[in-house]
Design goal:
The structure holds 2 protein chains of 2 kinds. Chain A is mostly beta strands. In chain A, about 0% of the residues lie in helices and about 50% in strands. In chain A, a hairpin with a 5-residue loop joins strand 4 and strand 5. Chain B is mainly beta. Classes of the chains: A mainly beta, B mainly beta.
Chain lengths: ~120, ~110
């Protein structure tokens, strides 16, 4: 069964450092998302991406965050200068789009720990 | 902003019992989704609902999209140990739009 793949599964970084979280969405999907989940809390929307551009972003997704689809398969989230409060699970998701029924499928997540 | 209120926050039940949990919103959603999250894993889609009044089953799971489009419930029949986890409702306005998650219902099953 096709799945969304995220790497690394766990990343520890020092405050102020840049991190790049990587995702390989399901191959025929057209819509891509990043969500985050602070430990023990709900899953929060960060950004959606379609047709090589951001279609929507939340207030969490400030200038420190950026997304990119550098090639035909990867979708990345970059945090430029990490803060302690960026520590969370980051989930990538993708959906097929189009006229057929679509749902967002989530990856296993990257646990980011900022120290 | 849009918020989903999910209840109960946690449940303790005996194996074999039926479970019911629900989700309400002050605003209308066009899509309701139910996800399950196991510890350290990403949310896994259980059921997707797209029409007001729609009742959909997936094995022992049944979910309904409320007529007012402001609520949804999820039922699990004859619970088994692997049902343990956190169940999230999520709502979306359009099929490919972001989805807003509720805070989750944590299901515990007593031996």
């Amino acid at each position: 069964e096709p799945e969304v793949t995220q790497t690394p599964s766990h990343q520890v970084t020092q405050m102020g450092q840049e991190v790049i979280l990587r995702c390989v969405p399901i191959s025929n999907h057209l819509y891509f998302y990043w969500y985050r989940q602070i430990l023990g809390q709900k899953v929060e929307f960060l950004v959606s991406f379609y047709n090589n551009e951001i279609s929507e972003k939340s207030e969490i997704f400030d200038d420190q965050f950026s997304v990119e689809r550098p090639d035909g398969s990867n979708f990345t989230l970059k945090i430029r200068s990490t803060k302690l409060e960026d520590s969370a699970m980051y989930f990538c998701a993708s959906s097929a789009g189009g006229a057929s029924i679509t749902e967002a499928f989530f990856g296993q997540g990257t646990r980011l720990t900022v120290v | 902003g849009q918020q989903l209120n999910q209840s109960p926050q946690s449940m303790f039940i005996q194996e074999g019992e039926d479970v019911s949990m629900n989700c309400t919103s002050s605003s209308i959603f066009n899509t309701w989704l139910w996800y399950k999250q196991d510890p350290g894993e990403g949310p896994v889609l259980l059921i997707a609902l797209y029409k007001a009044g729609e009742l959909t089953s997936n094995g022992r799971l049944t979910a309904q999209f409320g007529i007012t489009r402001k609520d949804s419930f999820l039922n699990i029949s004859a619970s088994i140990p692997s049902d343990v986890g956190i169940y999230f409702c999520a709502g979306g306005m359009n099929r490919d739009d972001k989805i807003i998650f509720g805070k989750g219902t944590r299901l515990h099953i007593l031996p």
